[in-house]
Request: fold
Amino acid sequence: MEDIVTRAGHLRISAHRAGTGRFVWRIEPTSDRPPHGSDVHPLPMLTLGRNNTVLFMNPAARDLIGERITSLDAIFPLPPQPGTACDIPTPGGPLRCIYAERSGLAGRREVFLVPIAEDPLATPDDWALFDVLPVPLLKLGGDGMVLRANPPARALIGQGSDDPFRLTEVLEGLGRPVSDWVADAAAGRGTVKPEFLRVRRADREAFVQVALRRALDGAEVVLIAVLSDATELKSLQAQFVQSQKMQAIGQLAGGIAHDFNNLLTAISGHCDLLLLDRDPGDPEYADLMQITQNVNRAASLVGQLLAFSRKQTLRPEILDLRDTLSDLTHLLNRLVGEQVSLTLDHAPGLSAIRADKRQFEQVVMNLVVNARDAMPDGGEIRIVTRNRTIKTPLNRDRAQIAPGNYVSVEVIDTGQGIAKDKLEHVFEPFFTTKKVGKGTGLGLSTAYGIVKQTGGFIFVDSVEHEGTTFQLLFPAHDHAVEIATTPVESRVRGPSNGGVVLLVEDEVPVRAFASRALQLRGFTVIEAGSAEEALELLRDQSCHVDVFVTDVVMPGMDGPSWVTKALARRPEVRVVFISGYAEETVGDSRSRIAHSVFLPKPFSLDELAATVERMAAKLPSGSENDVP
Reply:
């Protein structure tokens, strides 16, 4: 719905959906006319549309200009921004042109024309114009004391009293002190540019852009401050900066995780090789097992970094949250202890979601552990699941949620809560409100990454000393239909029949371990340190290869690219992609490569050998999509 101004008067146009592809349009006169568009407005005023087209002029504006105009560009230029002013010469004397956007009507602008004296420091004698103009204006003394403020300015800065106050009491600088800026403007030192300032308001966060201009009030030099609401602009800037920061941290975390996965693969792999020659009675066996356990702990930590950077491998499936959370309840009760009560509240007819079950359980456990830590003296944790339908686009925090059906999962505690200034940082990695040694700061960032990679949303609401609520939103799905399957006798894998493997890996320790592991299983291994070296080896047509085992990310040509070239001449060869990143980094390319599987790092000797043996045995392609 929108109100427009025509020569015949004001009209209201509205459009209503009436079925698929059909709309009902209503065009009707309206008496609800914008207050600033009235013919009886005391100030000369014009209403502008797009391209500075003049849609309406009140009698005062027609009398001042002397004619009815259709375009503002033909008379004078428009000020650069809403809430700013410019002085224009006219046959009847100079005018001050001030304009503001009309709230609620996109593209509409209202221009007010105020006669001024030719002296650039002079102002109208009637300061009552301050209270008439719709633009937020302040009259300042040279010391920064606010001598007068019109109603729009008071509403913008949240100042209800008519008593004088200092500008520094209601505004604070984002860089230099406000008092220094005002002093420079009053003394006429240098070029005083408009500044973005934060409003000191307790009810909400607000920003204004303030432009200062010197003027004369009798013999005294004063300052006129023109304010414009910049809250939305600063919010967008903050969102952009935050998204850039999170993206940079995510790239850094992903890169570190990739390098660590290579190191962990080499460490765990060589431990596996040493364990092959030892039994539990050997003195070194316990030490090697300790190394292996710590490698697994490190791999879990790296997995959290990959989760935050959304580069981990996910295996989504249709989940019934009632069954999933019920199965998890026993473990959660052990996590929270006896002082904290844990309850589940499921809505009837709850829809399913599509997510990686293991990762979803990790998210819930992280949220429950955080809730437990926020209640050192005990309390209650509730996990509430509900269906939710969003009919119009929903903007919250930095996310926009499209209309549709969703499943909401809330983890509610009665703990200490989170301070308001820390809420916007809770999902950042290594940020924690816990004491030193009590938390890594990766729990919520891991949950954030998993939820976002799954296609969902995560939000937090908290009140200090009352509690915190974390809400997860996932797109709703229909429940999976269980299909009866005939039990299949498991395949017993015996010793490998051998084969030739071309191993392409740029990390020397990983390549050394993988080569020895495959050779111990009876494979002949040809090694290459790069994709270019591998293609050079394959130029020899007498070189027979059964399986390509290749890293995905390498200097120069990547894994999928060189494999695609090699398969053009050797289409029968099967492929095992290995990488410290998620499968999605090779997902699109691998989908076009037949007979290929993905093996994430770090992997053990048995996992590598079993995967290559399965591919070398040329099992049916239906089983090749499984990751060991």
Summary: Residues 32-41, 117-126, 483-496, 619-628 have pLDDT under 50 and may be disordered. The longest strand covers residues 206-217. Residues 429 and 442 are 5 Å apart (CA to CA). The two ends are 57 Å apart (CA to CA).
